[in-house]
Amino acid sequence: MIDLHCHLLPAIDDGAVDLSMALEMARIAQADGITTIACTPHIYPGLYENTGPGITAGIADLQGQLQQAGIDLQLVCGADVHLVPGLVQGVAEGRVPTLAGSRYLLVEPPHHVPPPRLEESIFELMAAGLVPVITHPERLSWVEDHYEVFVRLAERGAWMQLTAGALTGRHGRRPKYWAERFIDEGHCMILATDAHHPQRRPPLLAEAREAAARRVGTEEAALMVQGRPAGILADTPPHSLPASLASRGAAPSERAAAAETTGWRALWNKLGRRA
């Protein structure tokens, strides 16, 4: 499996605090069946002032440490990029790295406040030839009132990356509900760990692949953790990669259909908005 969102680099953001923790996380990932990890520290002006050259240097150092420790993981470059003005120029100048130097860019919206001009900002990136991969929409506190915005973005070519732990319930009932809805309605392109810590937020992907397989089948689940991520690393144009279930016009899974029978809003109210 390929994990395209992981805060593995030590002492660079709110992920691994030191080399020892990074190595522990790497061992967990390897044991889980992950073979490639994109090191994606935050780029958040005013808080995490990381840049492409600094991230690249950190990856080279950590790759050497993994080899010395006998941990068989391939590291590639990336960043969890806060959605701010000037991203196109930042990518062009090399300050903001895309995933493995491809056209695919991890974009992180604010967690608690919907950004102004979200759709316009995403379309600006697309107009510049980038493919925005929006990280963890299921965990945003404002997703319930803006779900249709993410649906529109997905339909127009943006990608949605869900957090593995959200789908398996590690982040609570509310993110699990929204992760399942994105999956069931066919708007999830990839799953990634967004790991930050070996215990609290571990780099586990297999359990989410199995959870997705129970909802949409083993083939689609494998595309989320292997097929499409491999295409991203090869910089394959999105139209040449397997489309999402929604784009293919696939019918929802039996479990999703049952949920729709009761009504998504009724189910959401039953779970409770504070979950």
TrEMBL record:
<dbReference type="GO" id="GO:0030145">
    <property type="term" value="F:manganese ion binding"/>
</dbReference>
<dbReference type="InterPro" id="IPR016195">
    <property type="entry name" value="Pol/histidinol_Pase-like"/>
</dbReference>
<comment type="similarity">
    <text>Belongs to the metallo-dependent hydrolases superfamily. CpsB/CapC family.</text>
</comment>
<dbReference type="GO" id="GO:0004725">
    <property type="term" value="F:protein tyrosine phosphatase activity"/>
</dbReference>
<dbReference type="Pfam" id="PF19567">
    <property type="entry name" value="CpsB_CapC"/>
</dbReference>
<protein>
    <recommendedName>
        <fullName>protein-tyrosine-phosphatase</fullName>
        <ecNumber>3.1.3.48</ecNumber>
    </recommendedName>
</protein>
<keyword id="KW-0378">Hydrolase</keyword>
<dbReference type="InterPro" id="IPR016667">
    <property type="entry name" value="Caps_polysacc_synth_CpsB/CapC"/>
</dbReference>
